[in-house]
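New to this. Please check both lines:
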Amino acid sequence: MNEYTRPIALIALAAAHIALNSAGAAWSDTFLGLLLMLGLLAIGIPHGALDVWTHRHRSPGRHSGIYIGLYLLAIAAILGLWWMFPHAGLLVFLLLSAWHFGQADFERWEISKGHMAWGTIALGMILSWHVEEVNPIIGQMGIDTETLDGLLQVQDELQFVFTAGLISCGIAAMRMKHLPWALAIGLIGMTPWIPVLLSFGLYFVGQHSASGWHHLRQRLGLSSKALWLKALPFTAGAVLLIGLGIWAFGNPEAVQSDATVGAFFMLLGCISIPHIFESHWFLMSTTKHRR
């Protein structure tokens, strides 16, 4: 596939969704949500579920069973700490996610500096333009009312800062004549007119997970089918963990409730943090070998 086909298709999909919503087509949210859920199951979760294989690649000869056990212990420890210190847990997750998103994108685009700034701006745009949607979700993670009210009070300032940052990224991309980055900036720029879960899904599945999948195919030397089959048992395990977490902490009878969405992202975050470090180690080890 041409490297521009996917980002152009994402922008077209986002534009179509905005147009349909403006025309009163209530089904467009459901349709886009189903597409993104399929993408989450196809590459979103599987690209992280391949961590045991990237570990084997960068550390041949080490026992995978020990690694899996430590990985699960890390998830449990993160969940426990997040539960006890929700503000710190959420902040650490957001900072690590910004670092991870930026690294995956810039590594694919071969941009050497600034990945943390880009990841922060991309994530900040998605969240700051949807504070009223985000607050009930993070409130289910233990964030207190005073903090939630404070976010509402400064949302205009946050929107200004992150929008200015996105414009600065756009100027940098034009100076570099870097079309893939410019297209990603265009997608993020449509965030204010798309609900937060769909905005995040478009970026996470369509941009970030696609970048991660690209790295895995190129650096492990495997086809998408081979990767998906290797990931399948771990993908099933991740889905099971998230499902059990939603059953325990969310509201399984109302899958779109704030409690369910909050539990989903908290569980996804606990699983993601070990993946973020494994992804970094894998990218660094394979980058050295490619030079």
Q: What stands out?
A: The chain has a mean pLDDT of 90. DSSP finds 14 helices and no strands in the chain. Residues 12 and 215 are 25 Å apart (CA to CA).
